[in-house]
């Protein structure tokens, strides 16, 4: 009796199993719809971008040094402060240079007095010379007529020659005094300039670094730097591009176009600064096969900092009417890149594609898709060729029952 019941139970189980048809691929007989996020294949104008790592550098670096020697009396800024061109930074003790200025001014006044005195003497000597020359000419006429002895004529001529020589001597002394005046006037200007140098001002707008010499120290002419200023507005970003892009870069720059460069801080990728390519190096680095480039940024918000590493993106040509899909739609397999294309009945198929450049979360599809088709962008792990999907918002995937 027990054997009969056992045989009946086994028969029923075997019969039930035979009534279930085989499932192709282990999933047949099921009509479950797989949730997936989808997107349309569209056409857009896509710029060709070159993305590399760059380094930020100041557009100018100045070591502020003293042009006069003396005691550093005062400092008028704090370390790390932004300063404008012409701002007062340091003061050197001006008293020695005040004394030098007064001495030079006194020498100028002395020279001017000497010149005035010599000019008066010259006028007197000129008058004496004219009288002596006139007397000599008169004595010469009298001597011709035998009315005066020859010695009288000789004396008159000697007096005239002496008067003329005295006038020339006085003129020479005027020239000497004039030369001394010019030298002393130059000394005055130099003393005034030294006084100006006693107040050291910022040669450019930028940000100061650490204070290298403190008040109370003696400084020498053009000796150690007192502070270093970095100009950070505008600012440069140096980066290198592969040699194969040099032709396109030179062609576009030669057309007069301003090539846009975007940079993102590696510390804060959400913040972007935009500038323009300003320098193309004159040689290709044979070691690395790259060309050095430099872009200029206004940096008004001080986003970029000297020495900082950034991601630089150089925009080159634009591909018109490019076929693009979201980057999430492109998958990688043993045979290359592919996407899950959605057919009219919401079933999916694997579609091999040839990809092009990427741009802002999108990928250019060189072949394999046509505009207007639909591709799966999220949920690829749940689907297989032939499976049917139900389009859902990507935010709802993986959150439980739909």
Can you describe what's shown?
- It is a single chain.
- The chain is an alpha+beta fold and 402 residues long.
- The chain has 4 domains: 29-45 and 321-396, conserved putative lor/sdh protein from methanococcus maripaludis s2 fold (Beta Barrel); 49-58 and 231-319, Beta Barrel (Elongation Factor Tu (Ef-tu), domain 3), CATH 2.40.30.170; 66-93 and 208-224, no CATH class; 95-197, Orthogonal Bundle (Helix Hairpins).
- Helix content is 31%, strand content 37%.
- It has 4 helices and 20 strands.
- It has helices at residues 2-19, 95-144, 150-197, 246-254, and strands at 34-40, 42-64, 70-75, 82-83, 88-92, 199-201, 206-208, 218-219, 227-242, 260-265, 272-285, 290-297, 309-326, 331-333, 336-342, 348-352, 354-359, 362-367, 374-378, 389-391.
- Strands 1, 14, 15, 16, 19 and 20 form a 6-stranded mixed beta sheet that branches.
- A hairpin with a 2-residue loop joins strand 14 and strand 15.
- Helix 2 (95-144) packs antiparallel against helix 3 (150-197).
- The longest helix has 50 residues, at 95-144.
- The model is unreliable at 1-29 (pLDDT under 50).
């Amino acid at each position: 009796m027990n054997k009969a019941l056992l045989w009946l139970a086994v028969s029923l189980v075997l019969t039930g199993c035979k009534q279930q048809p085989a499932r192709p691929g282990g999933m047949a007989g099921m009509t479950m719809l797989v949730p997936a996020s989808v997107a349309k294949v569209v056409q857009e104008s896509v710029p060709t971008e070159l993305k590399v790592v760059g380094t930020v550098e100041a557009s100018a670096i100045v070591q502020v040094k003293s042009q006069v020697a003396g005691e550093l009396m005062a400092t008028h800024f704090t370390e790390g402060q932004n300063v404008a061109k012409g701002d007062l930074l340091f003061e050197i003790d001006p008293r020695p240079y005040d004394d030098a200025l007064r001495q030079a001014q006194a020498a100028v006044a002395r020279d001017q007095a000497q010149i005035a005195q010599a000019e008066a003497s010259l006028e007197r000597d000129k008058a004496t010379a004219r009288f002596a020359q006139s007397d000599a000419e008169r004595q010469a006429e009298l001597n011709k007529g035998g009315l005066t002895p020859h010695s009288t004529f000789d004396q008159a001529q000697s007096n005239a020659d002496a008067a003329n020589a005295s006038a020339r001597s006085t003129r020479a002394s005027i020239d000497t005094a004039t030369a001394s005046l010019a030298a002393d006037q130059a000394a005055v200007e130099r003393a005034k300039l030294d006084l100006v140098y006693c107040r050291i001002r910022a040669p450019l707008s930028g940000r100061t670094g650490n204070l290298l010499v403190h008040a109370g120290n003696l400084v020498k002419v053009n000796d150690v730097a007192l502070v270093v200023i970095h100009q950070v507005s505008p600012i440069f970003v140096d980066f290198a591009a592969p040699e194969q892009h040099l032709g396109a870069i030179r062609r576009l720059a030669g057309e007069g176009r301003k090539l846009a460069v975007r940079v993102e801080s590696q510390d804060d990728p959400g913040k972007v600064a935009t500038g323009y390519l300003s320098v193309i190096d004159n040689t290709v680095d044979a070691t690395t096969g790259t060309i050095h480039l430099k872009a200029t940024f206004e940096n008004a918000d001080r986003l970029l900092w000297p020495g900082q590493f950034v991601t630089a993106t150089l925009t080159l040509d634009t591909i018109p009417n490019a076929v693009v899909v979201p980057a999430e739609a492109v998958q990688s397999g043993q045979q290359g890149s592919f996407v899950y294309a959605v057919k009219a009945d919401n079933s999916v198929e694997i579609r091999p594609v040839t990809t092009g450049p990427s741009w802002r979360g999108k990928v250019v599809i060189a072949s394999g898709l046509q505009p207007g088709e639909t591709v799966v962008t999220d949920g690829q792990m749940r689907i297989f060729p032939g499976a049917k999907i139900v389009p859902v918002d990507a935010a709802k995937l993986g959150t439980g029952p739909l």
